[in-house]
Amino acid sequence: MQRPGSALRWAAAAGSWGCRLLVLLLLVPGPGGASEITFELPDNAKQCFYEDIAQGTKCTLEFQVITGGHYDVDCRLEDPDGKVLYKEMKKQYDSFTFTASKNGTYKFCFSNEFSTFTHKTVYFDFQVGEDPPLFPSENRVSALTQMESACVSIHEALKSVIDYQTHFRLREAQGRSRAEDLNTRVAYWSVGEALILLVVSIGQVFLLKSFFSDKRTTTTRVGS
């Protein structure tokens, strides 16, 4: 989903409104193009996404498989002419950075076609370009004030916190999925062991009973 922002508008009034406005400024998402999506990829399926990118724009594609099977997926990235820029098979997670060589629509696809019955949950973050500075320098005649410098530092720190929170949420979701899968397997294994023990116990009872049962013999006389 796109994260539109209005940081530049707020920055123009930062000096007159003081610290409270600076805090509001830090909470506004940046206008840099970024897409973060978590989606389900069924078995034997392929899902593609498209993004219009201008020439010379630096982009980063990062993805991770959260749940499903061996937590792997195929990923492929192509430029507007169909040239393959990135291709990996059965990757659990990866990150790829490139600079667009031409204008056009770039395509990246995730494939689960190698799986016959397991669907996957995939997260990806596709960043296009870089966030513009909070305080643009083209109309400035002086250096940043101490308050503006602190604002920039806090803003960068908050972006790092958001990135860390995202990764921790992904790891927590992946760990929960593995724990639930392990719990299901242990439950099935316990039920199977209980059934096996029941069958063996019944078999042993009948076997021991056969050892102590009286065997009657029948004698038949054949007369002339």
From TrEMBL:
The chain crosses the membrane at residues 186-208. One of its GO terms (biological process) is protein transport. It is found in: Cytoplasmic vesicle, COPI-coated vesicle membrane; Cytoplasmic vesicle, COPII-coated vesicle membrane; Endoplasmic reticulum membrane; Endoplasmic reticulum-Golgi intermediate compartment membrane. Residues 46-128 form the GOLD domain. Gene3D superfamilies: GOLD domain. Keywords: Cytoplasmic vesicle, Endoplasmic reticulum, Glycoprotein, Golgi apparatus, Membrane, Protein transport, Signal, Transmembrane, Transmembrane helix, Transport. It is a single-pass type I membrane protein. PANTHER family: TRANSMEMBRANE EMP24 DOMAIN-CONTAINING PROTEIN. Potential role in vesicular protein trafficking, mainly in the early secretory pathway. Appears to play a role in the biosynthesis of secreted cargo including processing and post-translational modifications. Belongs to the EMP24/GP25L family. This is Transmembrane emp24 domain-containing protein 7.
